[in-house]
Write the structure tokens for this entry.
Amino acid sequence: MNTQYSNHKFPRVVIIGGGFGGIEVAKALKNKEVEVMLLDRNNHHTFQPLLYQVATGTLDAPSIAFPLRKMFRKQENFTFRIADVLGIDATNKTLDTDIGSISYDYLIIATGATTNFFGNQDIAHNAMPMKNVKEAVSIRSFILQNIEDSLLKTDTEERSAYLNFVVVGGGPTGVELSGAIAEIRNHILTKDYPELKKEDMNVYLVEGLPKILANLSPQASEKAELYLKELGVKVLLNVQVTGYDGDIITFADGNRIKTKTVLWSAGVMGQFPSGINPDIVVRGNRIRTDEECRVIGMKDVFAIGDVAAMITDELPRGHPGVAPVAQQQGRFLAKNIIRMLSGQPTEKFNYFDKGSMATIGRNKAVVDIGKIRFQGFFAWWVWMFVHLMSLVGFRNRVVTFINWAINYLTFNAGIRLIIHKYRRPERVREPVNE
Ligand SMILES: Cc1cc2nc3c(=O)[nH]c(=O)nc-3n(C[C@H](O)[C@H](O)[C@H](O)COP(=O)(O)OP(=O)(O)OC[C@H]3O[C@@H](n4cnc5c(N)ncnc54)[C@H](O)[C@@H]3O)c2cc1C
């Protein structure tokens, strides 16, 4: 066993994942008699709610990411390693990682979720997900590349494929992303590309359910749809995507759209290292926990946030996959670990739902806070304030605020850079048995 990372003066709490949940556990264990080790495959925390603004050129990537080492530099009991955790050996209390074996006394799995393509290999290969900074930057490049490429096509039909942008999934991410792409068309297209007309570009939002924002109130759903239509987004409801080959997206009703760009925000699934009993992996590939975030059947192993499913009679599908759940579970779990170490009784987790919101272009948002529901300009200010304050780091808040102000005043946020040309990865065909 590799013990190079430990003096073992205090019990070691190892956290896999420096996302919303993981960083809260680590912060709440500051100055406590534990050794905290955070492992993440990236060296930064990502503020996922604003990824769509990176994808559409309003913000640059560093505004929504924050280096994990900088975040914890004043925390003495803290160690960080860039590591991809591959497996959990609960019997020996060790982790198998790409930097070697790491031992733990308490393990917290806070590995979040990845994109769910529901097993469709063609869509997985050709559509673009948006779960991290790299993917958001690729989307930005690809949108710009396709507009550039459209100028080289003389055939109208052929050109339209480069200027049709299809977003799949009518949750908050799909709504925000399609709204922001529509704003590019409405305010930027003809300025940057005088050869093109607004009508040349189409933005579609495809949703399998009869309404968008299905987890919000009916008022929020209706208003969001209206706002998107005002922006010129073509909202297709009750439409199931059946395939996408990189040129044409097909639907179960037989319709199809020629498009080079399909952005996939239609589903997520938990991701975690091997070593978890498949019997406790539930819907959405999430790990079942008890009400104290303890992984069922595993000693001293806990799961929080998007990867965890705390299933109770009141919550048969667990908590929603949103940042406040991960954050509250992180803080709760840190307190429970301290209670365990000091021999005090542990407590059960209670989620405090602060509400949901989504923005749909400038001046427009929908907000549900319990029974209080409002939409429009005031909702948009609330959305901006909440997101600005939630960003990690003073610099990020200032830079984001300045970018938003410039964008608001000029209709022209400027981060339309193609830094690396995006190319679809080569497809490795699975061998076909004769
Ligand atoms: C585009 C988008 C928009 C969103 N908008 C909102 C919103 O407006 N409001 C809201 O409340 N929620 C929103 N969410 C959901 C929210 O971001 C998640 O609920 C939240 O990030 C969950 O936190 P987490 O700690 O469980 O996981 P994450 O924040 O995803 O963190 C997981 C971390 O684990 C690391 N990791 C994963 N596997 C390994 C491994 N094997 N080894 C090492 N490291 C690993 C990852 O690198 C990552 O840093 C959005 C999500 C997305 C993708």
Observations:
- The domain at 3-41+83-115+268-341 is CATH 3.50.50.60 (FAD/NAD(P)-binding domain).
- The chain has a mean pLDDT of 94.
